[in-house]
Structures are given as C-alpha cells and as structure tokens.
C-alpha cells in the first residue's frame, strides 16, 4: 500500500507518497480502507518542524480519516466488515478524565497516522461515522468538529451566553455553526473583508476584522456594553491570548486550542485574577466524546465547511499553506 511519509521536517519537500508495508491486525484490531482524510494545522506543524514528533522518522502523518472496515480480528465485537468508521486522534482515550496514559498514543505523532490507503486500529479506537454526512464531510469530525463540540459542551456556558470565535479555520467554523444550534450569541473575528458575508450566512451575529481593528478586544467590549463575552475560543495563541483575556467577562473562560500565531505567550496575570477568568486548554476528546458528537450530528445536521477536495497530498498542503479559503482541506484516497 501507499502512505504519506514525513522523512525530513522543515518544509513540504520532506513529505512523500510512497510504498509502505500493509499494517497487520491482531485479534482485537480492525483493518480500515481509508476513503477520505482531513488536513489539520497539527499535520502542517509536524511537517514544518514547529510541533515536535514523538515517533522516530519516518512517520505516516494524519489524524482525521473516514473509511470502510475491510477486515476484523477474531475477537472484534464493535465493528463488522463494511462498516463506515472515523478515527480517534488519542488512540487510548476511550473515556473518562485525560491522563498521561491516554495522551501517549497520538495518530501521526507517536504512532503512524491515517494518510494512507489502509490503517489498522484497535476496535476501541474507532467510532461509527455519522450517517448524515458524506465521506468527505465525515473526515472533518474527529479533530476540528470534536474539538469545537467539546469546548461548547464542557466549558459551562449556557444558552443565551456570548462567545467570541477567532478566525475561519475548521474548528472555528464548526464552533460557529454548533454555537447557533446551541443558542449562543456569537462574535467572529476575521482578517478578510471578503469572508464577512459568508460568516453572516453561517450565523455570526457580529463580525470584527482584526486587520482593520488590531486591538479587537476593545470592539468586543463595545459590542457587549463593556461586559465582555462568556467564552473566547482562541486558536491563535501568541499575543492573541492577552486580547482574549481582555475580551472575557467576569467569571468567563478562554479556551486555548491552537497556536497559529505563536506557541509562546505573555499575559498580565492581574487581568486574569481580578475578573476570575479561567484559561483552559482543550485537546480534541475521548471516544465517548466522539460518539456523543456523532449522536448530536444525527439529530442536529451541521454541514462542515469544505474549502477544497483533492486527490494528492502535495497539492492539498500547498493550498493549505496558502490559507486563502475558509474551511477544511480534504484528500480522498482512490
């Protein structure tokens, strides 16, 4: 079979679609024929060397995939040949509280990932795909969709509360659509004027252009009569975190889920402590969380925004690198 291997971090020249051994399966394993995959920023960060790998090189990249069960081990009970399934980033996080053991097995980082024709999984490390989505759409569920769902359902905010969502990436657009389904008031930031009408169509109540309004937290305060929002979904990291804190209401929360700007940040602790603000990191979720999200999608149809569908990874990553269109980049496997 073929897979996308990273051999030399630093640039896109370090990846190659090449022959690699077919994965073996044990008694409790499932062999999946991959049909579609979604690119996440973490994949690009591994390629460029910004995010450290655990597994020695070469490594097969990718955490998000949908596929068809091709073969099962002799003791598998959760799935049958022909089932449509989606991957789980944290392969040992079946449920319960996150811990070091559950963090230890990450697709495309500490073990080979899903950017391949076939991948084997322990049966506990998969979930059935939502029937309401196409294969290409379902590929966006395990990381972008699940992260957004988990923030909105586990941060403690209630219908009618206000949230600020940064940007137009996969997590952010999922969060916007889910937030409207859940009854939250939304403010969305974007750096492109041409995205504003699109964001309104997705349900954004207010939009802030952070390019024309560099101190965007001030506009958040203006839009909320000085109160601030109950939740900020911060995907940028870096200097953005301080602005997120300034934009947050008393007893509010800043959800830290990315580092598009920088992995390092500096904040004024007084601005956090005085208003009892919580800074909390979110890292996708467990299989139980994923299955809960799939159930939600079955009765609350949300169509993930697809920026483009490609059939080769080099083209797809070049488009991703250009960052010109909102939504997820999908690669289908013939």
Automatic annotation (TrEMBL):
Coiled-coil residue windows: none
The organism's place on the tree of life at top rank: Bacteria
InterPro entries: ADH-like_C (IPR013149), ADH-like_N (IPR013154), ER (IPR020843), GroES-like_sf (IPR011032), NAD(P)-bd_dom_sf (IPR036291), Zinc_ADH-like (IPR052711)
Database matches in SUPFAM superfamilies: GroES-like, NAD(P)-binding Rossmann-fold domains
GO molecular function, one term: oxidoreductase activity
Domain Enoyl reductase (ER): 10-331
Pfam family, one: ADH_N
Record's signal peptide: none
Transmembrane domains' residue ranges: none
Name of this chain's protein: NADPH:quinone reductase
């Amino acid at each position: 079979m073929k897979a996308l291997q990273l051999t030399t971090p630093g640039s896109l020249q370090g990846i190659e679609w090449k022959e690699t051994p077919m994965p073996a399966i044990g008694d409790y394993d499932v062999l999946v024929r991959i049909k579609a995959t979604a690119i996440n920023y973490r994949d690009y960060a591994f390629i460029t060397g910004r995010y450290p790998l655990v597994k020695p090189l070469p490594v097969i990249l990718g955490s998000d995939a949908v596929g068809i069960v091709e073969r099962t081990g002799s003791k598998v009970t959760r799935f049958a040949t022909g089932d449509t399934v989606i991957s789980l980033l944290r392969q040992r996080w079946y449920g319960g509280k996150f811990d070091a053991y559950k963090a230890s097995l990450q697709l495309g980082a500490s073990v080979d990932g899903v950017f391949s024709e076939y991948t084997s999984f322990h049966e506990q490390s998969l979930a059935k795909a939502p029937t309401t989505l196409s294969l290409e759409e379902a590929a966006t569920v395990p990381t972008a969709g699940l992260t957004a769902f988990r923030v909105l359902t586990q941060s403690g905010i209630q219908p009618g509360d206000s949230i600020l969502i940064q940007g137009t990436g996969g997590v952010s657009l999922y969060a916007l659509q889910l937030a409207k389904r859940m009854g939250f008031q939304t403010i969305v930031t974007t750096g492109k004027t041409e995205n504003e009408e699109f964001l309104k169509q997705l349900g954004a109540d207010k939009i802030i252009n952070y390019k024309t309004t560099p101190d965007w937290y001030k506009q958040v305060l203006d839009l909320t009569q000085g109160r601030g929002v109950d939740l900020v979904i911060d995907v940028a990291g870096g200097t953005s975190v301080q602005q997120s804190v300034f934009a947050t209401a008393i007893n509010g929360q800043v959800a830290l889920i990315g580092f598009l700007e920088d992995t390092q940040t500096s904040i004024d602790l007084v601005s956090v402590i005085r208003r009892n603000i919580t800074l909390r990191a979110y890292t996708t979720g467990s299989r139980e969380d994923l299955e809960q999200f799939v159930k939600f999608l079955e009765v609350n149809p949300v169509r993930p925004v697809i920026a483009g569908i490609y059939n080769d990874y080099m083209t797809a990553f070049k488009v991703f690198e250009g960052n010109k269109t909102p939504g997820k980049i999908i690669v289908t496997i013939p």
